[in-house]
């Protein structure tokens, strides 16, 4: 199902199916197996069939496919140590990729060093360690008392005051954190939102938040919100920012996690029992995963960096420099990219949030050009879900984010389901794809975030 506005889109899910079929049709496929290890000892394992033979073209294609599969696993599952059993040459080329190419060095720096404090390393072995996951305790679900929930996005920050699970006040403020070089901007903005919420509560029992990026024990490992901060300043003033915020709020229970995980948590709180993949389509793309019993895993779930379009000239991610990554297909960036092919003219200086608002206004007016944008986004979504199904087992997919607001969101879902039924009939019957209602869209993320910490006995008065 060719996306209306992107006829050259080459879905990774279809490429992989065709490649593995081609390898098996030879009657003597080769195989590559690998395991990713995290610092806590969690191990993820994946494998693929490869083409037999060692001529240069075959070896080059096999390496490209292995590297793409490892990248999918790195950004979805996480890890810094790669144990690999593969045909000759692939291990050395993979080592070279993480040391000598811009995209490989980015993966090694962000996933390896910033998240796990260790550069990515590649270890050849025929004896891969067994798969193992250290699953965290049940996430969230605490709705008692007076709480503050916040969500930090790339174009706005949201905050809500909540009493026993009911929103009594909320606020949404536009901001521009991506390219700020002084972290005081972030601190002041977050503190302002928290203070506004506290003014509407008799006291504060707990604070929970969601934000784009990777957070471990409330430490910022890496986050697009702080991408403009110099590394030394990041270490001094950003890494422990939320720990410092907790201290500023007199030690009130305070938890911050990835915004995609909070989306998945919202799904686990509101949908029938089952594993939930959460996807938030905002300035970037956030992913999160909650197991069937409501627990989070130690996985990264940074699906924004997962390549889903394998054409050679696919759009390039402005941060990682890689091509065909999810962020260019399911986000406000995707909307901005598709306006020109849809023949929707906007000033080149118009910011992404304004472009999305313009598109949604056209959609409300029934403009067929806007419909084409959402049909294209829906096709992207369907093929992305099929690709992610190779590393996630999910029964529910919950969509959130500004891009899904309005009638265009329903078009996206219907088109994605059409893609799954047409090209992946084995997946379609077992995937429930939905968006929250309008009330949940406005407040659901904040409620789910606010439910993260368990409350202490002693409330904290406003600051």
Description:
This protein has 463 residues and is α/β, with parallel strands linked by helices. The protein has helices at residues 12-25, 56-76, 90-100, 102-116, 184-198, 231-238, 241-248, 259-270, 332-338, 352-364, 368-388, 407-423, 438-450, and strands at 30-37, 43-50, 81-85, 121-124, 146-152, 156-163, 166-174, 206-211, 214-216, 219-222, 254-258, 276-281, 285-290, 396-400, 432-434. The chain has three domains: 12-124, no CATH class; 146-261, Nucleotidyltransferase, domain 5 (2-Layer Sandwich), CATH 3.30.420; 271-445, Nucleotidyltransferase, domain 5, CATH 3.30.420.40. Helix content is 38%, strand content 19%. A five-stranded mixed beta sheet has the order 7-6-5-8-11, sandwiched between helices. The protein has a four-stranded mixed beta sheet with strand order 2-1-3-4. It has a four-stranded mixed beta sheet with strand order 13-12-14-15, covered by helices on one side. α3 (90-100) crosses α4 and α9 crosses α10 (352-364).
